[in-house]
């Protein structure tokens, strides 16, 4: 389910460290970690009790820097006295509020006096710059490609970044009529003889698209089309082989292969399938597999030796149609269309037929000897295979030159198998069992992730991320037939991804959520023998003594990596070499952003934990500049929620968005609570919502609101909640719960009944309606009584292909039939789940601004 609504939505170059390095050793951070909320900002000195009012755009007003560690110089005796007082006060607070358990130093930011306006949210003022390295696995490790100012494709290496060689001269890439070709992406063949160019790109769903493809031969700078270009294009995917320059592609939902020795103008393709249609897909996923299983635009996989292709065939003939109506297909709202247009899409809902997905292989070696497509392709089966209508193929991966791994799980994601196929076999062997009686070892769902990585160091085996004692960790399965994991990591923390593998040094690089709101890079040793006596050997490669959220992009050989620091301070990037010595270059320091931030008022972000029914939940509080905790001023609290299974909102990522604007300009307190069901704290926190969405997550949001309501500086008549997508659902369910703590709710594009959402996502957490009828009823938004007790806002795009408009339409109908008045609704014509039509996205936030101003006004007002 889409839940991203971040309103803050380069070429590689050496950057001078001296210009972009930012030193935060002076404590100029706006992030704190606290045991409790009563000392939020302390009293912030008497200077901050009555900050001057400043109108929008007033650059000359007085701005106060809140820095708890560096106040004005005072006499030594006064400094000692102040320290003693603070120690006594903190000692009492720690004893009183032990439930707020996450403890770390607190820091306050120096703040400017410039006001933030809505334009700053949307015009990129606070966007952090970042660079991307497109590693070229076909060349020596450390080689990357990019396009220069002339559009040429050039290659550089980490060791000589300022020296580039032109791989493709853009002026020489011509179509069949001699006109220059323009492309939006490219890929290099494994032998570096050809470049595949994608042109005429047309987006379809979240990941999928269609395009025309051209092949550029480097030896003579000639170009020829993969297929005769069409308008609109029909090719959905094309992929070079991992050896030589064969190519597989999908056109009109059929799979084709061109062998390396036949590549050239007028080439002939091998048509592997011939049943592709609007409802049968070969080598690419249908909508629901693209959205909820594969998270990508392809369903074909070359074997490492390029002798075979595995692919999925999806038949959605029995899947029910859903019709989306469009009132105006243009970008001009004033263009008149007398009749609306319609789009039918296959959209399976809970309890209705899913696409029938089967696994197939095509052997080029067999085709070479038999010249028969039918003899070269096989459908794969295994003993104990689930009925095709009742299962999901969640992963397909080659784990050796001649070995294929397939994962299947049932629709409810409670049981599953991992099946191994050796070369030439059509009957596989179940080598691992998933679910409560298998690797998960308890209740809850089986995740649909794709984490399998073959071990390419001469030994037989592969890596996967598997639950260990309720936490996701890296396991080695060796030999391939083994079902017993050899654990490379362990502990009460979770691995989020395998980032790289170094076969020469037997090292696995991974990112871990340890603690859960951080992301740190680590390495682990891969055992080569003595598995029974092996103990995990883990080394942290980022500073785990400090809060940090890192992302990493390794080179194919894992010798180099682009390390991206994403918070809690301003993001930066460094290009680094593994080992203690080697390349360490600052790629982006965001110096200009630091200068910009120093001009503006800045909120304080506090990250802590609360307890709810014995569960420790992560919580984040953003408070306004010059925050007064004395209780003389009262502040509204707006809880921002997502809360979907496995998601996370509270983390150490840096960001400035609409919520920053609300804190700084409206003087609101913005709160996030990651309740039960959310991710990166183990299955114990995730599992309670199984078959029961919308219950315990609501309890935890209410707990967060009640905790805030205890604070003397909170206006208990102005506590609200808002969210988008699953967050919109959470908003509706929280309002429905009638806790008495919330007075306002804003829901954007919400699910209101899980019978309306797609089958694969919903049944993963709720089982099927037949298995869990009561759960589906209780999880729907049905009780309208409390909606008449709060200020409620609802928005939805009429063209939403993900969370259909009917969710809001039925909620509106229930409100009407129940006689509930006072709510506010706005439809965004033709907009999808992201509200992307005709300025819709910004208008959502502008409209909520108006609503909040009308219902709440500003915070930080003096209480009489």
Automatic annotation (TrEMBL):
Spans traversing the lipid bilayer: 80-102
Chief location of this protein within or outside the cell: membrane
Residue segments, region Disordered: 1-61
Any GO MF annotation of the entry: dipeptidyl-peptidase activity
GO terms under cellular component: plasma membrane; vacuolar membrane
Bilayer topology annotation: Single-pass type II membrane protein
Residue stretches making up the Peptidase S9 prolyl oligopeptidase catalytic domain: 657-856
Biased composition range(s): Basic and acidic residues: 11-56
UniProt cross-references to PANTHER family, sorted A to Z: DIPEPTIDYL PEPTIDASE 10, ISOFORM B (PTHR11731:SF200), PROTEASE FAMILY S9B,C DIPEPTIDYL-PEPTIDASE IV-RELATED (PTHR11731)
Assigned protein family: Belongs to the peptidase S9B family.
The protein's name: Dipeptidyl aminopeptidase
């Amino acid at each position: 389910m889409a839940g991203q609504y971040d309103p803050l939505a380069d070429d590689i170059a050496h950057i001078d460290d001296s210009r972009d390095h930012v030193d935060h050793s002076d404590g100029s951070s706006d992030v704190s970690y606290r045991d409790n909320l009563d000392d939020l900002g302390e009293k912030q000195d008497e200077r901050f009790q009555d900050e001057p009012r400043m109108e929008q755009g007033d650059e000359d007003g007085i701005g106060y820097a809140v820095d708890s560690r560096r106040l004005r110089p005072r006499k030594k005796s006064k400094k000692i006295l102040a320290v003693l007082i603070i120690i006594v006060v903190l000692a009492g607070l720690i004893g009183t509020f032990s439930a707020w358990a996450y403890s770390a130093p607190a820091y306050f930011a120096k703040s400017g006096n410039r006001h933030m306006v809505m334009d700053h949210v949307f015009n990129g003022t606070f966007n952090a710059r970042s660079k991307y390295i497109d590693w070229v696995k076909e060349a020596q490790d450390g080689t990357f490609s990019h396009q220069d100012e002339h559009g040429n494709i050039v290659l550089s290496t980490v060791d000589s970044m300022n020296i580039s060689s032109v791989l493709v001269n853009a002026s020489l890439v011509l179509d069949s009529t001699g006109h220059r070709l323009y492309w939006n992406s490219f890929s290099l063949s494994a032998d570096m003889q050809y470049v595949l160019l994608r042109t005429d790109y047309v987006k379809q769903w979240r990941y999928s698209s269609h395009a025309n493809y051209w092949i550029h031969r480097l030896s003579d700078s000639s170009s020829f089309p993969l297929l005769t270009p069409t308008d609109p294009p029909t090719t959905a995917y094309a992929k070079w082989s991992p050896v030589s320059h064969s190519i597989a592609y999908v056109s009109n939902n059929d799979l084709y292969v061109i062998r390396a020795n036949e590549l050239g103008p007028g080439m002939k393709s091998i048509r592997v399938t011939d049943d592709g249609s609007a409802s049968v897909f070969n080598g690419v996923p249908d909508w629901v597999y693209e959205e909820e299983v594969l998270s990508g635009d392809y369903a074909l996989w070359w074997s490492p030796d390029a002798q075979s292709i595995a692919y999925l065939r999806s038949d959605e003939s029995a899947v029910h149609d859903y019709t989306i109506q469009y009132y105006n297909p243009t970008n001009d709202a004033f263009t008149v269309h007398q009749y609306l247009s319609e789009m039918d899409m296959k959209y399976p809902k809970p309890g209705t037929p899913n696409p029938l997905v089967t696994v197939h292989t095509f052997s080029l070696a067999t085709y070479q000897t038999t010249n028969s497509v039918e003899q070269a392709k096989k459908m794969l089966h295994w003993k104990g295979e689930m009925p095709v209508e009742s299962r999901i193929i969640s992963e397909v991966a080659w784990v050796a030159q001649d070995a294929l791994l397939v994962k299947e799980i049932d629709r409810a994601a409670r049981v599953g198998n991992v099946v191994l196929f050796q070369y030439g076999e059509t009957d596989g062997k179940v080598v691992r069992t998933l679910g409560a009686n298998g690797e998960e070892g308890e209740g809850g769902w089986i995740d649909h992730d794709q984490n399998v990585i073959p071990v390419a160091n001469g030994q037989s085996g592969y890596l996967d991320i598997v639950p260990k004692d309720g936490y996701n960790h890296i396991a080695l399965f060796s030999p391939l037939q083994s079902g017993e994991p050899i654990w490379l990591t362990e502990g009460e923390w979770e691995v989020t991804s395998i980032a790289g593998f170094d076969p020469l040094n037997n090292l696995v690089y991974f990112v871990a959520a340890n603690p859960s709101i951080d992301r740190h890079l680590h390495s682990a040793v891969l055992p080569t023998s003595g598995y029974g006596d092996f103990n995990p050997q883990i080394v942290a490669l980022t500073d785990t003594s400090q809060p940090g959220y890192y992302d990493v992009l390794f080179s194919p050989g894992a010798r180099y990596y682009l390390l991206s620091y994403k918070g809690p301070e301003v993001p930066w990037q460094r290009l680094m070499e593994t080992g203690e010595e080697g390349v360490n270059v600052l790629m982006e320091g965001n110096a200009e952003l630091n200068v910009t931030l120093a001009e503006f008022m800045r909120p304080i972000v506090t990250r802590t934990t609360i307890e709810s029914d014995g569960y420790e939940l992560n919580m984040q509080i953003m408070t306004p500049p010059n925050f007064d905790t004395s209780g003389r001023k009262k502040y509204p609290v707006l809880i921002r929620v997502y809360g979907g299974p496995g998601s996370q909102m509270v983390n150490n990522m840096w960001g400035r968005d609409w919520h920053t604007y609300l804190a700084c300009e409206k003087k609101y307190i913005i709160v996030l609570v990651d309740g039960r069901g959310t991710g990166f704290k183990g299955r114990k926190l995730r599992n309670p919502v199984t078959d029961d969405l919308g219950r315990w997550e609501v309890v935890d949001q209410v707990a967060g609101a009640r905790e805030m309501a205890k604070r003397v500086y909170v206006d208990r008549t102005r506590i609200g909640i808002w969210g988008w997508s699953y967050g919109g659902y959470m908003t509706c369910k929280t309002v429905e719960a009638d806790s008495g703590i919330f007075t306002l709710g804003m829901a954007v594009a919400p699910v209101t009944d899980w019978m309306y959402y797609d089958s694969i996502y919903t049944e993963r957490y709720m089982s099927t309606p037949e298995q869990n009828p009561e759960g589906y009823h209780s999880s729907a938004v049905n009780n309208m009584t409390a909606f008449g007790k709060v200020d409620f806002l609802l928005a939805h795009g009429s063209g939403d292909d993900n969370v259909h408009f009917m969710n809001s339409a039925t909620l509106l109908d229930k409100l009407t039939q129940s006689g509930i008045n006072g709510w506010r609704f706005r439809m965004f014509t033709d907009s999808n789940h992201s509200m992307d039509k005709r300025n819709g996205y910004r208008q959502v936030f502008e409209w909520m601004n108006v609503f909040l101003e009308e219902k709440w006004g500003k915070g930080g007002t003096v209480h009489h």
